[in-house]
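pls design
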């Protein structure tokens, strides 16, 4: 078997780290988790707490709400404290108004750490607890999961 075939056959592993005050971001990450599980991934989800550290995985996924045009402080501190390492990451945010700079700020905090960004996603929400979120976000989450999967299966 070629190495590439082995990569395509093996179970992939994703680790999601998120913050979510009102639950929108958590709901979006649960949707992502089920998309990836359907693609055969093992997926862990962890809400950031003091002392959380990222484990090794085929892809690390970071999700923060947008507060005042930025990721929340807990996520900024977590990303800034990530050690230098190789590997893939993907970024997500939910936001209420115009498309924010949240993803760029998250990306800047990871720059220079040696990791490779494979996908990002900014999901608009209506209000604090958006009843139609799952219906609205389904296509975006599917595309996001697809990009992550392609990157995990095509690069070494
Ligand atoms: C304190 C606070 C500040 C916010 N600031 C912004 C903002 O600057 N821009 C924006 O688009 N949405 C803003 N929002 C809306 C949130 O980004 C949106 O409701 C998000 O989905 C919340 O995620 P969560 O439910 O996971 O906590 C803000 C919400 C709160 C509670």
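designed seq:
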């Amino acid at each position: 078997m070629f190495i590439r075939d082995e990569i395509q056959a093996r179970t992939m592993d994703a680790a999601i780290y998120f913050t979510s005050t009102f639950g929108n971001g958590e709901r979006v990450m649960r949707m992502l988790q089920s998309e990836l599980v359907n693609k055969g991934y093992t997926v862990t989800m962890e809400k950031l707490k003091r002392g959380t550290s990222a484990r090794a995985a085929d892809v690390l996924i970071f999700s923060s709400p947008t507060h005042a045009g930025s990721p929340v402080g807990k996520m900024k501190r977590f990303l800034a404290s990530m050690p230098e390492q190789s590997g893939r990451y993907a970024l997500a945010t939910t936001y209420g108004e115009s498309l924010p700079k949240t993803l760029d700020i998250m990306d800047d905090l990871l720059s220079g750490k040696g990791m490779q960004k494979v996908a990002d996603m900014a999901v608009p929400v209506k209000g604090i607890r958006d009843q139609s979120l799952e219906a609205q976000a389904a296509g975006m989450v599917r595309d996001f999961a697809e990009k992550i999967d392609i990157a995990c299966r095509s690069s070494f």
